[in-house]
Amino acid sequence: MAGMEFEYDEEGGTFFYFLLSFWSLILFPTTYYLWPRNKSQDDEEKKKRACMCLPCLVKQKRLKANEPWLKAKQKIVKLILILGWVVFIALAYKVSKVQLDYVEYDPFKELELDRGATTAEIKRAYRKLSLVYHPDKEKTGDHKKFMRIAKAYAALTDEESRENWEKHGNPDGPGAMRFGIALPKWIVERENSVWVLGVYGLVFMIILPVVVGIWWYRSIKYSGDEVLLDTSRLYWYFINKTPNMILRRAVMILAASFEYDKFHNSEVIERPSDNEVIPSLMKLLPHMQEKNKERPLCYPYSVKARALLMAHFQRIETVPNEQEMDLQYILKKSTYLINEMVNICANQVSMAMAGRIHQAPRLDTIENIMKISQMVVQALEEKASPFLQLPHMTNDMLRQLNRGKKPVRCLKDIATLKEEERRPLFRSLGDDEYLDVISVLAKMPDVEMIVNTEVLDDEDNSVTAGSIVTVTVILKRRPLEDFIKADGSRKPVDYNQQKDGEEENEVAEENPEKENAEAADNTAVWDKRRGKGKKKPNPESRKALYKERKAKARAAEAEALKKEQEALNGPQNGPTKENDDQDEVEKESETEENNDNETHKDEDDDEDWSKFQQQSKKENSLETKGKESFPVHCPYFPIDKQEWWWLYMADRKKHLLITAPVQICSLKTEEEFQLKFCAPATPGVFQYSVHLRSDSYFVDFDKVVQFKIDVKKAKPVEDHPQWDISEDEEDGDHDDDNDTEDDSDYSSEEDSA
C-alpha cells in the first residue's frame, strides 16, 4: 500500500532554489528604492540661482558639512547592494549546475538497449554489463551500477515486474508518495537539535519580543505628527489655562516642550558650558521672564530653549558653536510643535462650541502661535520690518525705502516699481548684491484669494438660521517675478484681474441670453439636491424626485407652448369633417412622437442623474497630495523649508475661530478648498473673514477677505410628497396586526425601499 515519505535535501539542490527565490524578493525592491540617484538638472539650476548673501553662504557651508557623511552613506549602500547582486549571481550559477533529483526510470536505458529489443538481446546485454560492473571485478566493479542493471533485467524479463514498470514507472510496484523539503538534513539531525532549538528560541522568544516592545514603547510616546504625547498635554493645559495668550507667553510654552528635555528625549545634550553661556546671553535679551515659577517654564532646559529662541529672533551672532548646534536642533523641531499647538487650539474651539469646556482660545492666541512660525523661519522679532526678509538689508537701507518718490509699504510695492525707481532705493548695494535682492524678491509669492459662499442643501441657495454654509476659497499663486519686467516697466497690480473682469463684462453684454442660461443651469444644480430639514432619502427616491421635478418642468413648458400656439392661430368657428380627419392623423403622429420623446427623455434623465452622482462623489472625495510647493529663502533656518500656508475663517468682531485651520502644503499655481460652518441661530447680517496665513514668510504675505452673509429665518419643514400615506394604504394598515401598525407609524421611505 502506498504511503507518504518526507525527504530532506541531501545535496542542497532544492535549498538553493528556495534561497534564490527569497533573495530575489528582497534584492529587487531594495535596489530600486535605495540605489543612490544623481541630482537632477532642476537642482543644478536652483544652485545657479541661489542667493549669495553671507547668511545663505554660511547655511550652504553647514549643509555641505553633512554631505561627506551622506556621500559615505551612499557609497556604503552601493557596496552593500553590489555584494547582494554578487550573491544573487552566485546562487543563480549554483542553481543552474544542480541536477534534478527525480529522473524517470528506464530499464532499456540502464541496459543500453533500444525500446524494440528482443528477449535474447536483453539477456546478452545483461551478461555483457554484468561482466564489467560486477562487484567482484577490482578495476571496473560498481555495486550501485550492478544493482540497477539487475533491476532493469528483472523488469524486462519478469512479467510482474514489467507490468509494474509499465503501470507505475517502478518494477517494485507503486511506491510511497515522496515530498521534498528545501532544508538541509543536518538541521533535523539529533546531534544538532540543541543548537537549532537555541537559535529558534533566541530569534522568536528574545529578539523578536524585544524589538516589538521597543517599537511599542516608542509608538505610545508619540502622536501621529511625531510629537510627544506629554508635550501635547502640556500645550492643552496652558492653552486652556490662558485662552487669551500674548505672543511672548506662546514662545515660553513652545520653549517648554519636552522635546528639548533630556529626560524625555535622548537626542538632547546637556553641556557644562550652558551654565556660563546662557546667563550671559540672557543679559542681552529683555523680557526673558526668567523669574517665572510655573513648571516646567522655570526648568533649566526651558529657560535655555527660550533664550536661544529669543536670540534667534534678534539675530544675535554671539552664540558659541555648541549652543549654535542646540539652537539648530530646537529650530528643526519647532515647526512641527507649532503646528501641534495650532491643532490643539482648533480642537479646544470645537469642544467649547459643543459645551465640553468653558472657554475657547481667542483668535489672537491662534494667530500669535502662527506668527511664531514666521519668526522662527525668518529669524525676526514681533515688530521687525518685513523688508529684512531680503538679503543684504540693513537699518540704513530701511530708511532709504521710505525716502523714495513713491511710498513703499510692502515687498510687492518694490516689485511693481520701475527699474529706475527701484535701483536708487538700493544704491548702497553693488550689482551682485542687488541681483541677489531681485532674485529672492522674484521667487516670493503673491496669492489672490477668491471667496464664494453657498448653501448646498437649499434649493434657492439662501442662508437660513442654523444651515450649513459652504465657503469655497480659490487660491491663485504667482511669483512676484510676474511684476518685474526685464525692460524696467511697471505692471499694474491687478492687471490680470482687471483684464478678466473686462472680458467677462464684454461677454455678458454680447450674450445676455447665455448668461441667463448659465444662471438657470446653476439653479438647476441646487434643485437636484435635497432640501433642508428633510430626512435623507435613499438613492432610488432621490432619483424619482429628480425625475418628477424634471417632468413638472417639461409639462409647464409644454403648456406654455400650447398657449402661445393658440394665441397665434386664434379661435376656430367649428369643427369640420376634414378637420376631424386631419386632427386624428395629427394626434396619431403626435402620440408616436411623444412616445419617442419620452424614451429619449428617460435616457436623458438617466444620463443627467449619473452625471449628478459622479459630481457628488467628486465633491465628497478626499485627495491626498504631496507636501511640495516652493523653497523659501530662509538663511537663518537650519534646513531647507517649503512654502506652507494656513487657511481658516474667523469672526474678527467676537475674536473667535469659526473653522479649523487647514494646512496647505501643495499650493503651486491654483488650488480650491471648502470651509464649512454652521450659520447663526438668529436672523441678521453677520460679517466674517477668510484668512490665509503663511508659516514661512513674515506679515506681508498674509491675506484677508471679508464677506457678509444675510441669515434669514429658518424655513418650516415640509413633508415630502412621497412620504404621504394614502387612505387605501392606511386602511390596509388597520387590517394588519398591532405590531404592523406600530411599525408603520415610524417607517420611512428608506425602510420601504
From TrEMBL:
Compositional bias ranges of the Acidic residues kind: 501-510, 580-596, 725-753
J domain span: 106-169
Subcellular location: Endoplasmic reticulum membrane
Domain of life of the native organism: Eukaryota
Region (Disordered): 489-625, 718-753
Entry keyword set: Chaperone, Endoplasmic reticulum, Membrane, Protein transport, Transmembrane, Transmembrane helix, Transport
InterPro entries membership: C2_domain_sf, DnaJ_domain, Ig_E-set, J_dom_sf, Sec63-dom
Membrane topology according to the record: Multi-pass membrane protein
GO annotations of cellular component type: Sec62/Sec63 complex
Residue ranges crossing the lipid bilayer per the database entry: 15-35, 76-93, 194-217
One of the GO BP terms on file: post-translational protein targeting to endoplasmic reticulum membrane
Biased composition (Basic and acidic residues): 489-500, 537-566, 616-625
Gene Ontology molecular functions: protein transmembrane transporter activity; RNA binding
Alphabetical list of PANTHER family matching this protein: SEC63 DOMAIN-CONTAINING, TRANSLOCATION PROTEIN SEC63 HOMOLOG
The name this protein goes by in its record: J domain-containing protein
